Amino acid sequence: MPRRRRWLHRVSCHRPREPEPHLATGHNAVKTSVVYIGQYVLPLDLRHKHDRVYSTNPTTIDTLLADAFMCRGDRVLDAGANIGFTALHYICRGASEVHAIEPAPEVFFRLNSLEADNLFTHNIAFSDFNGSTEIFLSRSHNQGHTLNPGFLKLFPSVFGEDTERATVEVATLDRYFPSEHFDYWKVDIEGSESKFLAGAEAHLKFRPPRVVQIELYPAEYDAAAGILSRFYSTGLRAVHNPNNDQLLLLDPCSPELSAYANQAPVYIFY
Core-most of 28, 133, 138, 242, by most CB within 10 Å? Predict the structure, then answer.
């Protein structure tokens, strides 16, 4: 069941302040930090790659897309919320509610510890069926956990040879949220995106979001784009220009994309 957060005062959204790193003491000392999103505090564990990225440059493709496409008052579905970086940004940006979805047990523990108004956390995985399943846990960082065994071969350095696993609850979006409407979807669920969309047929048909942000690797693109193109007239590849922290929206076949081959393949449909 979702956990609703206690009320905190609403704040204006601005670029997070500089992090405040410190080194814990003791036998198992861990270097930690925090990043401020408005006045919300996100603790960081600097052992993890993406935590270190957030500590040095809080502008990401997710924050750029939210700044461009979110509207104040939006109800947001953050599927693949991880530790809550994007969820806090959505709240700061003016979302009326953010439903943050994270199946990985240790990551969800961090997400669920956040104190922010209008944040609802859900320890569930989304796919095209209801029940339980195995999740493969990344060994190299905390943002690669997947239900898709094909990702183990696609990213061997992320998972290692002896892959750690856990059992998680899984549901379709239509079953888990049978009547809710969301204005903005962010879907980053590591290779289960097309199955997520197959399990969201009623949402797309009867109460589609205004905007869908979705990460699609090549094996997922055709199936997912085929579904979304039935409901949205525009589908573009989104990239982050690190030289000026600007958002670029490009045709999925644009030759300019070769300059951003190291970025995750994020698309925006509207």
Answer: 138
